[in-house]
């Protein structure tokens, strides 16, 4: 997915989240169709998008008659995601901001959050992987040096 600046000025966090959610949903549907065209089967046919704004989730999941919102000015084409959610092609689930992996890619993290972010990504220090291996580190280093010499 391509990241770019939003070309719209929003008046609230919820509106910004709704526009971002709409854009992500469009890109996810495109990728889903592309994978289907390439005969790549996904584990689940529906797309799940994580969102840390409960009001935005309410906007796309609740019945229109129950909604009380100040976002009447939001373009109707941005509400198409409600239709996608109602048909089941897309689901939106709440995830607390602290657990939002994408934030680590878009915002600066304080040093104490960095190890947690790496863990969320599933990254571990190479020393941990090597420690699990039965071969001692020196033996691996020697093999690498021999490989480099043979390539020269």
Automatic annotation (TrEMBL):
Q: Which branch of life, at top level?
A: Eukaryota
Name assigned to this protein: Polyprotein
């Amino acid at each position: 997915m391509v990241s770019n600046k939003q070309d719209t000025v929003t008046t609230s966090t919820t509106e910004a989240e709704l526009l971002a959610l709409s854009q992500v949903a469009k890109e996810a549907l495109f990728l889903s169709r592309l994978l289907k065209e390439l005969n790549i089967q996904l584990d689940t046919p529906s797309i799940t998008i994580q969102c840390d704004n409960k009001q935005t989730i309410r906007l796309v999941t609740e019945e229109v008659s129950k909604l009380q919102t100040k976002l009447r000015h939001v373009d109707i084409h941005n509400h198409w995601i409600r239709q996608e959610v109602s048909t089941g092609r897309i689901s939106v689930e709440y995830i607390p901001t602290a657990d939002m992996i994408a934030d680590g890619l878009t915002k600066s993290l304080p040093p104490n959050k960095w190890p947690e972010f790496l863990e969320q990504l599933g990254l571990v220090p190479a020393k941990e992987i090597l420690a699990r291996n039965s071969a001692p580190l020196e033996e691996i280093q020697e093999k690498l040096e021999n490989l480099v010499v043979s390539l020269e």
